[in-house]
Each structure stands twice: as C-alpha cells, then as structure tokens.
Amino acid sequence: MTYLRKILLGFGVVLLAVAVLLWFFPARWAVALIAPQLHGMQLQQVTGSVWQGNAGQWRDREGHDLGRVQWQLSRRALWGDVRLQIDIAGPQLDFSGNVRRISSDTYDWRNVRARVALGAPWQSWLTSIGTPRGEVQLSVDRALLQNGWPMDLQGTAHWRNATIQGANDEVALGDWQLQAQARDGWIKAQFRSYGDGPLRGHGHLQGNLLGWRLQATLQPHGPDRALRQLLHRWGTVGADSTVHVDRRGGLAI
After folding, report:
1. Distance separating alpha carbons of residues 190 and 177, to the nearest angstrom
2. Are 136 and 116 in contact (CB under 8 A)?
3. What rounded mean pLDDT belongs to the chain?
4. In what helix (H) or strand (E) does residue 49 lie, and over which residues does it extend?
5. Residue of 112, 109, 74, 116 lying closest to 94 (CA atoms)
6. Cβ-Cβ contacts under 8 Å for 37 (sequence gap 6 or more)
7. Residue 16 — φ and ψ, nearest 5°?
8. Cβ-Cβ contacts under 8 Å for 135 (sequence gap 6 or more)
9. Residue 27 scores a pLDDT above 80
C-alpha cells in the first residue's frame, strides 16, 4: 500500500506540473512549435503566455513588417473550445476581431474591424488589375468561414481615395462603399460611389464556389482620358459615355 501510495503521489505531482505548465505556457515556446504552420511568416519579440501574449513584430515570408500582434486565447481551448481575440497594429494594416473554431475547417469570426493601406509590397498579388491604392476600411459583424469560404456573412467596406496605378499613369476612382451578405455559401454584394469623385456609379456582385457575376453602371466625370480608357476595357460604352459592365466567370449565374 505504501508503494502504491508513493506511485499515486508521484503521478499527482506530475499531473500538477503539467497543468501548471499548460496554464502558464510561454508564448515563445508555442510560436516555436507552430512555426512550420506559419508558411514562412515570422513572429518576433514574443512575450507573455500562449493565453495572453504579444509579438513585437510580425513579418511575412519576404520579410515585410506587417506590425505587432496581441492575442488572448481562452483556456477553454484545453477542452477543445478554441476562442481567440486578436489585434494587429501596423503601418499598412490594423485588424481586430474574435474567432471561434467550430470544427477543423469552420471558423466563426465576430466583430471584425480592419484598415488596409493599399499599395504595400506584401499586396503584390493584386497587381493583375493594376496596383490598387487608397485605404480600405472593413467592418464585419459576422463571417462564418468553411475552408476559407464565407457561408454566412454580414459586412461593409469603404475604399477611400481609390486609385489604380497602371504602367504609365495613375487613375483616380474616388470613394466607394460596399455592403456584402452571404447565406449558405451564396455571396451578394452591392457597391456604389459617394462624394464628388471623378467616377460615379453603382453595381452588384453575386457568386458562390461554382461561379460569379458582376454588373455595374459607371459614369466618368471630367476630362480624365486615362480613366475613360480604363472604363472602355471594362464594359460597353453608351452614347452618354456611361459604361455598362457585365462580367462573369465559372458556371453561368
């Protein structure tokens, strides 16, 4: 009995040590463990615990500085209920939001707020349409993502001082607002210009994983030749210089 009691006592001490370690698990250890899943991104100057910590510097795979990161992870994660609050503050990106993991491929984002200054080097994937510039402000009440695709979504976006930087010139587009909704994986978005900008118009976008369709009516104001040339590539020009856009991809919608 004495021998068994010693074994049980030793086992209890080990369990207590493991529990304490998990409760105060250093964030820098956690970052080292998940490094292979960061796809070349780096979290540096890491302090705090895995439950509440921060990284003084977040860099992408090319080494561009994206800002500093703070997070709070609920200890419910020990029982499989992963809930995370994250805040990012950087020169081209500000982001805050709460996320809960529903399953291995489904995440529920709430109260997301973001500011993105377009034209940063890490946004090079956008250059297929020219280089967008300006500032985008995003507000999402809820986004239920399954394999990265929004199954349920409610949000708005503002693109202020919008411009497209081409090979030879910069085309000003003004200020634009977008409202987006998604249900059962079907996305619908409405957008319009506001203010007294060089381009006025409105339109809507709809799509799912199988296809998409974009329809818009755009009216240039002023003598900007570069803007008119850009619009002519986007759609059909009417007698009053109004451009009617109707584009689609994938299966017909």
Report:
1. 8
2. yes
3. 83
4. none
5. 116
6. none
7. -65, -40
8. 115, 116, 117, 118, 159, 160, 161
9. no
CA distances from 29 to 7, 34, 50, 94, 132 (A): 30, 9, 8, 26, 38
Residue 68 in tokens:
């500093």
Residue 123's pLDDT is 55
HSE of 219, CA atoms in CB hemisphere, 13 A: 10
Using alpha carbons only, what angle is made at residue 182 by residues 107 and 212, rounded to the nearest 5 degrees? 115
Rounded distance between C-alpha atoms, residue 51 and residue 73, angstroms? 5
- Residue 42 binned pLDDT confidence (cut-offs 50, 70, 90): confident
Residue 35, both tokens: 């490094």
> Quick one: tokens of 186?
């079907």
> What's the token pair of residue 49?
């615990």
- Place 253 in a pLDDT band, splitting at 50, 70 and 90: low
Segment 52-57 shows an average pLDDT of 88
